[in-house]
Amino acid sequence: MSSGDSTQSNFQDSAQSTFQAWLIAVIVISCLSVAGTAVGAYFLYKCFTKHGLPQININSNSTPANPSSATDGDEKMTAQNSWIEDATVERFLNNIAKEKPIRFTRQQLAGLTRNYTIRLGSGGFGTVYKGQLPNGVQVAVKVLNTGGSEDKRLMEQQFMAEIGTIGRTFHANLVRLYGFCYDSIVRALIYEFMDKGSLDTYLFDKSHTIAWDKLHEIAIGTAKALSYLHDECEQRIIHYDIKPTNILLDHNFTPKVADFGLAKLCNRENTHVSMTVGRGTPGYAAPEMWMMGQVTYKCDVYSFGILLFEIAGRRRSFDASLEEDERWFPKWVWERYENGEMEKVMETIGVDDEHKGETERKLMVALWCVQYQPERRPPMDKVVKMLEGEMEIVPPLNPFQHLLSSSAPSKDLWSGTSLSSSGADNQGLRFHSLQQQQQQQEEEAARFYSLPV
């Protein structure tokens, strides 16, 4: 073989080897690429399965930044209205799941209420309509009255109070706020719908009946809601208007406290809140709420006590149609208790033997709650324990002592500290024996409830 042929043969062998090496490399790289793609696709699949597909916010500019922007033409209204109808419904439902109040437009409210066709009720605050969210949840839409300038200012204060209090809370016995509307025309609040209406219907309307055990559960549930507002929220919330019309009932008669239009947030360090105007409803509001001075969260305890009397008696706390000595139910109960005639109370109420014990328990707790001096009223967590039978109820003091004497002892029974001297030496002989007895009862109760308020 010639040298030329040998050289050509060696070149061909080298080229063939190089080609084979490159071919193997390409095959290996292709296999690795396919494997990498498969692994990446697997992880993307797992990610989407867990978190869902990313959503494009097509509504970032559809909600007006201020009331005046709500009237800017048909195109913006159409874009706003499409918020419920389009893909952002999913975001809407996710926000509700996160318990955040949603800001609605008035066009959305018209859709939710079908142009306000079902009216549930009305009052000085405005009108309530029935509606339904896109996920089928029924709601109550409270459209607030605007009225004149003074009415508008008051409405705005109540509007902000509702959003600022119930909008930041969640409890099984508090009505849930789903959202609100605030623009130049409509101011509204959107709540969960309560099938059974308000408690007053079942207490004062003889055409509606409710079992005694359900009434006891309603009393305990309402007490738990107030205990949560007073002691478990980041800031203490004072409701200021506890009464039967503000206790709503769902289909299972579960009570939920509503109407936070008068509510107020306060720091726990500030035990007293200044009152410049009277708040609450006459007959339910604590005496100190009409004295334009300092009040505490114990004003809610007083209102709950009046409510408890009405739950236990299935009657109003004051009924002018009855005999004079029976008109004011709390005082009549105290007089019967003081004379050892509680059986007469049970007969008048008409409670059966099975529920006499829990009914008397409610009345004893109510007598503690309506004490004239706030320091004598128990905090709501103690009220819950007494109603549930987890805490003994010592004999209550006379809530109406102030009607006989203006210098009754003033001790904080729930912390055992004296707030002022009794001044008993300056009393007339007529009240001396009564005050000694009252002071002995007070000292006994203070020892028993020696817990911080």
Description of the structure:
ATP binds at residue 142. The structure is a single chain. By secondary structure, the chain is of the alpha+beta class. Among the domains are: 84-90 and 102-192, 2-Layer Sandwich (Phosphorylase Kinase, domain 1), CATH 3.30.200; 197-403, Transferase(Phosphotransferase), domain 1 (Orthogonal Bundle). Helices cover 43% and strands 13% of the residues. The protein is built from 13 helices and 15 strands. It has helices at residues 3-51, 73-85, 89-97, 106-112, 149-165, 200-204, 212-231, 298-313, 329-338, 342-349, 356-369, 380-387, 429-448, and strands at residues 102-104, 119-123, 126-132, 138-144, 177-182, 187-192, 197-198, 236-238, 247-249, 255-257, 264-266, 273-274, 294-295, 410-412, 417-420. The strands form five sheets. A six-stranded mixed beta sheet has the order 1-5-6-4-3-2. It has a three-stranded antiparallel beta sheet with strand order 7-9-10. A hairpin with a 2-residue loop joins strand 2 (119-123) and strand 3 (126-132). Helix 8 packs antiparallel against helix 11 (356-369). It is elongated and about 130 Å long. The relative contact order is 0.06.
Q: Write down the CATH class of the domain at 197-403.
A: Mainly Alpha
Neighbour order of strands in the largest sheet: 1-5-6-4-3-2
| Beta content | 5-15%
- How many strands, which pairing sense, and closed or not: the largest β-sheet? 6 strands, mixed
Helix content: 40-55%
Distance between the termini: 114 Å
Number of E-type strands? 15
Please tell me the CATH architecture of the domain at 197-403 by its name: Orthogonal Bundle
Query: What name is given to the CATH topology of the domain at 197-403?
Result: Transferase(Phosphotransferase), domain 1
